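re: that chain from earlier
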Amino acid sequence: MVDYSSAVEEIQKQLKEKTKVFAFKKLEREVITTGACVECGSCVEGCPVDAISGNRVENKYVPTLTGDCISCGICYAMCPRAFAVHDELIGNVKSAWRVRSLGKRKRQDGGAVTAFLEYMLEHKMIEAAIVASQTPDTPWLPVARRVTNKDQLYDCGGTIYTHAPVVSEMIKGFKDGFFKQAIVGTACNIDAIDRMETHVAGFFSVNTDASVFKISLFCMESFNYADLTKFLKNESIKIDDVKRFAIAGGQFTVNLENDEKSWPVKDLDSAAATSCAYCQDLTGMHSDISCGNIGSDGGWTTVLVRTAIGEKVLQGALKAGIIEAEELESKSVIAVANSARFKKNKFYMLKPQH
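^ sequence. v structure.
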């Protein structure tokens, strides 16, 4: 039988080999002071040097650092409210890449999403793709659009940071006889489809002839259209004059005809969609492929491949010369995971309902 001390040594070894380790101060900042602590005592009893005490403060059990932390990472890794390993943060990933479209069309970041859809349409892997596009008579107001060829697809390039009913449009597509579709959406959209696939009464459980390829966009938060317009107006910008929106490095950037302006994303909290406060998934863990700009240089798209069909699409697009791709370095994957952890921890900052 392995004694406790030997078990702790093995735990420390596993943490050093397989994940990033965090000191108690990080646990205190993210979990204890936010009110997310469940008072289970795993951090107190798991500390190999007895540096953490379970103190009673106004009859509440509060883990407190009372000794010298050796930054072994056990307290953070074993906390049920902390997120230490990549599977918890970005889900199952078969391979990770940075990708750039080789087409000459206007694109957002590396243009990988458009390239994947082009490849699938051209090779009859799908009959239609569902994407978000601008409403023709209201600039940057999103509308869900069904595209069936690459010319239509190129008209929809660029990211719109406002919710669009893409799942609704997908269902309409099936009603119209398009049984092989791809959809581009954020984690919340992908979760809706996952429910349709896994629930016993879900659409895809009942209709096995239908299929959908899921591409998720990295998303920290989306914005309410009216509030985003108001924010820009307060900055003396008409949304009609915006040529491109982008979020990178914690900055929200607006490109105009001959100018560019940016603000810290947190400055737009008042414009954020209320539903985003309840989401903890940055990358869309239930998708076939996840795409975003975190972890890659400008002009490239970070791509996380999650399924066998996702791998087939990436490799097919690469072989067809539609994209170029390089395997993502581990430090870049860590950058994505760190952003995912930040989003998960934002949930603990919500005002409690009781």
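The mean pLDDT is 89.
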